[in-house]
Amino acid sequence: MLLYAGRRLTYGLLVLALVAVLVFLIIRLIPGDVVRLQLADAPGVTQAQIDQRTAELGLDEPILTQFGHFVGGLLHGDLGTSFEDGRPVTTKILERLPATLELGLLAILFGVLLGVPFGMLSAIRHHSITDNVMRFLAVIGMSLPNFWLALLLITFLALWFGWSPPLVYVSPTEDLGQNLVHMLLPAIALGAATMASIARMLRSSLLEVLGSNFIRTIRSRGASERVVVLKHAGRSSMIPVFTVLGLQVGHILGGTVILERIFAIPGMGSLIFEAVGQRDYPVILGCVIFYGAIFILVNVVVDLLYAVIDPRIRYEGATA
Amino acid sequence: MSIAISGTARAARRPKTRSGLVRFATEQPLGAIALVLITLFVVVAVLAPWIAPYDPLAQDRVNILTPPGVGGHPAGTDELGRDVLSRSLYGARTSLLIAVATLALGGLIGLVIGVVSGYFGGTWVDSVLQRIMDALMAIPSIVLLLFVAALLGPSVRNTVIALSLLVIPSINRVARGEMLRIREEPYVEAARSVGCSTPRILVRYGLPNLMAPLFVMGSLLFAVILIAESALSFLGIGTPPPTPSWGRMLSEGRSQLEIAPWMTVVPGLILSVSVLAFNLLGDAMRDFLDPKQRR
Amino acid sequence: MSHTMLRLKRSPGRTVGAAVAAACLALTAACGTGADTSGKGKIVEDAGPPQDGGILHTAATTDAPSLDIHKEASYMTHVAVGTVYSRLVAPKTGQDVEYGSSELEGDLAEKWSKSDDLKTWTFNLRQGVKFHDKPPVDGRELTSADVKCTVDRIKSLPGHQLGLVANVAELETPDPYTVVFTLQSANTAFDQTMANPFMSILPCEGTKGEFDLAEDAIGTGPFMLKSWKRDQERVMEKNPDYFVEGLPHLDGIQTTVLPDAQAQIAALRSGKLDMISSLSTEKRQVDQLLNQIDGLQLRTEKGITQTRVFMNAAEGPFSKLEVRRAVAHAIDKEGMIKALRSGGTLTGPITPTLFGALPQDEVDELLEYDPEKAKELLAEAGYPNGFEADLVATDGYGETILREAQWIQEDLGKIGIKLTIDQQDYATYVSSTWPETKYDIMYGLQTPMLTADEYLTSEYTSTGTRNWSKVDDPELDKMVAAQRVITDEAEREKALQDIERYIMENVSTPLPLYAYDTQTLYSGKVHDYHPHPDYSSRELQNMWMEQE
C-alpha cells in the first residue's frame, strides 16, 4: 500500500514536470509582449526603457537559460516573481488557492449530497417513474453548461425574488455564513454536472451489483432490500463514484475559471485568467503547475481510497 | 484462418445493422429517441441553407431586437437585426463541423497513441506515451484551451485544434484499455504465432474490436465538445464573429438576458437538447453493448 | 417597434413559486421590452439640505492595475484613488456647471496668478491642510515642499504625464505656502495642466519611497483609502480632517469589482449596490430597470471616449487616401448609435466636449453616410470592384465593440470591401497589433485625452507617441506645431479646427466615428452627483445620501 502510494506520487511528480515543460514552451510562443503591455499606454517610452524593463524581467536571455532558471527555482519551491507587481508567485497563488479549493469542495459536496441519493433511488426503483425522472434530471444536469446555469441563476433570482449574491467575497475565517452564501450559486452551478455524473454512475454500478450472485445470495438469506442496498451493495458500488470524482476534478477546476469570474471570487481561476491577459508568464506557469498538482494529488488520493472502501482491492503489484 | 477468426469476432461485437437497430430501439427507448434527435440535428445542420428562413448574417436593421413573431422573424432577432432561428439552425452546422473535425483529428491521434500504447503495454513506449497523456489530462481543459486559443487566435480551425487536445487523452484511454484486453485474446495470440506483423495485427484485429467502445466514447465526447465550444466562445476565444455558433450566440445574448431572452433561450435550448441527446445515446449504446447490463 | 407586450412586474421583491418561475422563463421569451420611460429615471435636483452619513456602494468592471497615479496610465487608477488626492486646482463641478466645463476652482491652492509673459505661474496654498492620518505621513501638514517632490517625481517617470510638465523649467518654493513655476515657453493655460488628475499632489514620504505608492495611497483628499483588495474591493472612508469644512457628506465609499454586467444589474436590483455606471450599451436594459425600480435615477453624459477606425496609412489597400475616405462615408454611424449605443455624437479627431472641437454640423458633413460617394471614391482609388481585407477587433472592450465591427463589416461589404473579422484578445491587440501597426484596418476605442493638443500631437504627427496608423504628413506636422504657440484663444481655436478639417479630408486615419454616451444609474436616495469627465471622482465629496 505505502509502496503503491509512493510509486503513484513519484509518477505524479514526473507528470507535473512534463506539465511544466509543456506550458513553459507554449506560453513563450503566444504573441504579445509583457513589456509593451505594461508600458503600452505610456507615450514617450523610449527603446532604452523597454530594454531596461526586459532585462529586469530576465526576458533578454535565451529561452533555455530562462528555462534553466525556472527549473532551478522550482526545485527550491520558488516559482519566481510576478511580472505584473513583482510579488512572489507562490504568495500570490497561496492567497488565491483557498477560495478555489473551497468552491471546488463545495461543488463536489453538492454533487455527492444530491447525486448519491438520486443514484440510489434510481437504481432501487429501477425502470419506475422515479427512476426515469431522476435519470432525466441527471442528464439535464450534464447538458446545461455551468456558466449558462450560473447566469440564469443570477439574473432570474434577482428579477423574480430581488435576491443577489453578496458583493464582496469574505473568507470563511472572517464570516463563514456570509462566505457560504456567496459560494452557494457558483457551487450549485459547478456541482450540477458532478451530481449528474455521480447519479448516473451510481445507478448503473448499483444495478450491476444488485444483479450479482453475491447479492442474490444475501437476498436469499432473507435480508431486507434496505440492508442489501445500503450495507452490501452500497459499499462496492461506491468505487465507480470515486472514479467519477477523480475524473470530475478536472471539470471542476476548469469550471472555477469561468465561475470565479462571473461571481467575483478571488481564486486561482480569476488569477490565471488575469495572468493570461497580462502575459504574466511566471504566474501562468505557477497556476498551471498548482492546477496539475491538485489534479494529480486528488487522483492519487482517490486511488488509495479505493483500497480503503473495498478491502478486496490490493495494490501490491499494481503499477499505474 | 485469420479471416474466419476476425469474422466471428466481428459478429460477436457488432450485431447486424437492421435487426440490431430494431433491438436497440426496443431495449433502449431513450437511446432511440436520442438517435432520432441526433438524426434531426444532422439533417438540420446539413440542410440549414434550405431550411433557414433568412441568411444568418443578414442584418435586418429595421427589426432590431424584435421579439419572436414580430417582423416575420419566428424566433425574434438579435442586436444587429439578424434572425435568431436562422442563426440557430446554422449554428448546428458550425457545431457539427467543429465536433466532427475535432473527433476526427483528436480521435485519430488518440487512437494511434492508445493502440500503440496498448499493444506495447507495460513497456517504456507505453509508459512515455501515457505520462504525456497524463500531463495533458492534468491541466484543466479550460486552462489548456485558454492557452491554445490565445496562442493561435480565435477561428474555427483553431477551436478544433484546441478541442482536440481534450479528446486525445480520452480516446487514448479507451483505445489502450481495449488493446490491453484484446492482446490477450486467443485469436490475437494465434495470429501472432502464425507470424502476422505487428501493424497488421493492430489494424486487422485491434480496430474492429475498438469500434464499439469508441462509438460510445465518441457520442459522450460529442456532448463534451459542444459544451466546451460554447464555453470557449463564451470567454471570447472560440468561434469568431459573425459565424453563427451556439456558444457565440449565448455569449452575445448574455447581456440581453433580461430584455431579449429569445436571443439566448433558443440557441441555449437547442444546445442543451443536443448535448442531452448525445449523452443519452452514449449511455444507451454502452448499456446495449455491455452484456452485463442486458437481461 | 410597436408590439404587444406583457409588462413585467414593477416591484421585484415578490414571492413567486418555483413552478411559476420555471414557467416564466418560457413566458419572458414572449415578452417585449417595456420602452416606456416617461417620468422614469428623473434626477431629483431639489432633495433639500445635504445629510451626513451613509456608505455609497458602487461597482467597477475592472480594478486599477496599481494605485500609483503617476506611473499608471490607466484611467482606472484615477477612478480608484482620485478622491484620495488633491491637486493645486481642479475642475469645478456642480448642478450649475456644464458637464465637461473647463472652469477651475482652487483645490489645494487658495489663489493663483500668472505673469504677463505667461511664463511665471504662482500658486498660493491653503494653510493647515493635513495629510491623512496614516503612517508614515501621520497627518502632518502639507507644504510647498510636497508639491516640489511631486513635480520632481513626475518629471522622472516615463509616460504620458511627462508631457504635461515638460515645459516647467524651474519650480521654486519661497515659503511653505507658495509655489512658483517658471516655464520654458509661454503657456496661456498652465492652470488647466495643473488641473489634470495626473497632477495629484503626493507627500514627500511617498515620492521618497517610504511607503509603496502602488499599494497604498495617502493624500489630502476628501476620502482615505482604508483597504484595497486587488480585483475585489476598494474601501474608502471619510477624511475627518478634510480642509473643506463640512465635506465630505458620505461616511465612506465601497467599490466592488464585478466584471460581469449581469451580476452588477442583479446587485442593483437587490439593493446591494447604490450605483452602477459605464452601462454605455444597453439602453433597453436601462429602460427596464427604470421601470422596475422605484426612484432609480439615470444620468446620461455626453461621451468622451471615441470609437475609431484605424487604417494602415503606409501599406496595403488602405494606404490610398480615397479608400480611407470611402470608409468614412460608407459606415452608417447614426444607425449604429441608434441600434447599439444609448446615444452618441459624431466626432472629429478632437472630442466634442473639448476646446478646439469642430462645430457639430461640420463633423456631421465630413462623416456623412453616403454609400454612393463611397463607391465613387473606391473606384477613383482603383478598386471599382472592391477588395478583401481583415478587420481586427478585440473582445477586451466588451461585446458592443464586436457588434459594431460586424456592423462595419456589413456596411463596407455593401461598397465591395469584403472584410473578415480577426478577433484578438486584448493583450495581443494592445501590446502588439496596435502599436506595431500589424493591421490593414482595425476597429476599437481611443482612451480619452484631456486636451486638443494631446490628440493631435500623439496620434497624427509623424513622430507622435501614438501614431500607430503610420501617418506621415509634413504639412500636418507643421500645422500641429504652429498651433501650440498661439496665445490668442479665438485664433488658436480656429487653427485647431483647420487642422481637424485637414485630417478628415487628407489623412482620414485614425478615423473617428463617434463619442458614445455613458449612463450612470443610481438609487433614489443618492443626491448631488455632478460628475466630471476627468475621472478623478472628486465630485463625490459633494454627494450625500438620504438617511432613514
Automatic annotation (TrEMBL), chain A:
Its main location: membrane. It comes from the Bacteria. It is a multi-pass membrane protein. Residues 97-306 form the ABC transmembrane type-1 domain. One of its GO terms (biological process) is transmembrane transport. The chain crosses the membrane at residues 12-30, 103-124, 136-163, 183-202, 241-263, 283-306. GO terms for cellular component: plasma membrane. Keywords: Cell membrane, Membrane, Transmembrane, Transmembrane helix, Transport. It is found in: Cell membrane. Belongs to the binding-protein-dependent transport system permease family. This is Peptide/nickel transport system permease protein. It comes from Nocardioides albus.
From TrEMBL, chain B:
One of its GO terms (cellular component) is plasma membrane. The chain crosses the membrane at residues 30-52, 96-120, 132-152, 214-239, 259-282. It holds the Pfam family OppC_N. One of its GO terms (biological process) is transmembrane transport. Keywords: Cell membrane, Membrane, Transmembrane, Transmembrane helix, Transport. Residues 92-282 form the ABC transmembrane type-1 domain. Signal peptide: none annotated. It is a multi-pass membrane protein. It is found in: Cell membrane. Belongs to the binding-protein-dependent transport system permease family. This is ABC-type dipeptide/oligopeptide/nickel transport system permease subunit.
TrEMBL record, chain C:
InterPro entries: Peptide/Ni-bd, SBP_5, SBP_5_dom. Keywords: Signal. Residues 103-464 form the Solute-binding protein family domain. Residues 1-29 form the signal peptide. GO terms for biological process: peptide transport. One of its GO terms (cellular component) is periplasmic space. This is Peptide/nickel transport system substrate-binding protein. The keyword Signal applies. One of its GO terms (molecular function) is peptide transmembrane transporter activity. PROSITE patterns: PROKAR_LIPOPROTEIN. The lineage of its organism: Bacteria, Bacillati, Actinomycetota, Actinomycetes, Propionibacteriales.
